[in-house]
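Students often ask why we bother predicting the structure of a whole assembly rather than each chain alone. The short answer is interfaces. A chain on its own may look different once its partners are present, and contacts between molecules only exist in the joint model. In this exercise we take two input lines together and write out one structure for the complete complex. Read the inputs first and try to guess which parts will touch.
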Amino acid sequence: MKESPIGTSSGGALEGRRLEGMIVRKVERELYEVFIGPQHPGSGHMRIIVRLDGDVIVEADPDIGYVHRTMEKLSEVREWLKPIPLLERMTIIDACNVTLPYVNALEKLMDKSPPPRASYLRVLLCEINRIASHLYGMGIFGVFLGHSTIYMWAFGDREVFVELAEILTGARLTHTYPIPGGVRRDMPQDFPEMARRAVRYMRRRLEEYRKIFVDNPVIVKRLDGVGVISKSKAAELGIVGPNVRASGIKYDVRLVEPYEVYDELDFEIPVFEEGDSLARTWVRVEEIKQSLNIIEQAVEWLERHKGEHIIPVEDYNKLPKLHKEVYEKTGRVKLLPIHASMKIPPGKALARGEMGRGEIVYYVESDGGTTPYRVRVVTPSARNAMVFKYIIPGHRLMDLPAIYGSIDYFPPESDR
Amino acid sequence: MIGVVLETLLYIIAYPPLWQVLIVGFAGALLVAMVAIWFERKAAARVQRRIGPYWASPRLGGFMTIVADMIRYVTQQVIIPFTVDRLAFIVTPVAVLVITILPLAFVPLSPHEIYWPVASMEYSLLIALALTTLPPLLTVVLGWASSNKFSVIGSLRESYVITAYELVAILALLAPAAATLSFNIAYIVEAQHPIKWFAILNPLAFLAAFLAILMSTSAFPFEIPESEHEVVAGPYTEYSGILYALNMGGGYIRRFIYAMLVALVFLGGWAPYTPGSGPLTGFIVPSLIVLIKACLIVFAMSFLRSVYGRYRLDQALDAAWRLALPLALLGLGWSIVLAYVNLI
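Now the answer. The structure tokens for the assembled complex follow.
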């Protein structure tokens, strides 16, 4: 008899040790098995296999990997700078946050450090990205709950920050802004005023969001006490980002291991104790407020320190005359062709950062060649994916979007 | 000569089954459904700071987008999967549409007996309400015929929701009958003349009816049986093309029929207007007044979509038994008080 590729027949020593959820298993008679995804309006690029007893979910198997793009392997065959635009594609809505730790790791290997102005510019873009990412998540969450207005509002207001990023970097989403030792270009003259206007606008809008969405009685009823992750469970599962902060654990890379200039800035890490979907929503709203504060501070600092370098002085001195002219006139850094095939001293480096969705970790190893020997990425969504298996069971089928949306899980980021 | 021809034509048009069931009922419902969809999209777009349908006909505010959608549905390929129960799959959506419009054959849109589609209106409210309860049963049938898990879950939800909310809708709509001591809609309407509308005299029952109709016809934020992010399209998941359009339009048409009943028993029907005796003033004008009132009710229902989210199924049922049903019973009780003190 021919064996089925994922069959239940003898698997030798591996029998019973295969990945749970990947094996064809008998469903108990009274259970109803529903496949939410991957081609389902409420699933994203993943599948949750749900087993129902009546309306109550007794088992949920997150089945991920539908958008795996071999990011780590592709990074190994590209010259040192080229993984930056590649790795952005993991979380295109959070592009600076997702590539910054990679750049930080390269800087550690090269023993370079960016000038303060470059650091501030990076932080500025990171916070713009964080707001855009949270608004994106909130919009999707809203439409999962049948609230189409917040969906349109959040996506419309996200545009403000996407355009802000475009003015700063030249690209709406794939900025490729940080480079080892600095950033690609300086901010335009009128940027501070625009940023301040955006901040004022967003503060006003958040109040309206609160009225129509976060304090909406129907939404509160849907989210309150749903999908509770207790403090101990959150620690045990190792989830990160706003999800863990909604469960009462004050963990944020910007706080525990400040990178760039986060230790010079004045901001708070919002923490909620409840651990339910409502708390996760509130954390994101509060984080948007904190990011707005950071943007204001960063812009103010940048205004006070006009004309400083955005790449290290020794790099600047190496530039030919034409490149120096462009740099001084337009604030753009034109990289020399030599950067494409630069070699990085052998070594290992680990860098981490706080994305909109949580902690991202890069491990970069160099053997002294023109390409990385190894790039290991651990994204926040990959660490949050496991949570579905443990918190969904016991809830009703209609709670699934309320939980799934509140986790703000992003499959392309998780699958890499 | 032309006057005679026109008058003959008028009498032909005013033939109650033709005017009431086909023109007001079928064409009117279709038009109201289209306008309601357009209004829903435009109103929601306004709230959500968008433009909504526009480019298909900028001067009409994009209304032609809806027409184009209809054309698309009509000409689209109808895919019938192998696994479905073919007969039930094809017949049910058509049957739903026919049965949905049927209650209109039992309501008077004129005070004059000659313009009634059936000879006696003695029990018209009861019969019309009884007929409105039929289409949801067929929704359950078509969900079952689809042999799709999401369809089965969707129709199961539908059966829960209608069990809870149809009861409320019927009780609330019967409140005016309790106040007037008659099931005759024509009599109920006359009793409200000119401005003693039951929506004003008995707001509790009106509110309960409004809520129950929203829920039992799955208006957008309350579309628990077909909520996209849980059960794809609920009972209609396997449907495509014209059959899907019939299902989707069915919900709007049911809402419209309910709205007609509400307009008659709660909003005084043709009330401020005193019908004459000719076919034009005695039948067509009053029926158009009822149509416009029904339209306004449907619009009001559409507007809620941009404010509220979706209730969870158990929360919706909870609200039905703990909030809507007592509200409807209170309305009924208040109607009995109204009848006792002879206010009507």
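Check your guess against this: The interface with chain B takes residues 32-35, 40-42, 55, 142-149, 151-153, 156, 212, 216, 218-219, 221-222, 396-402 of chain A (CB under 8 Å).
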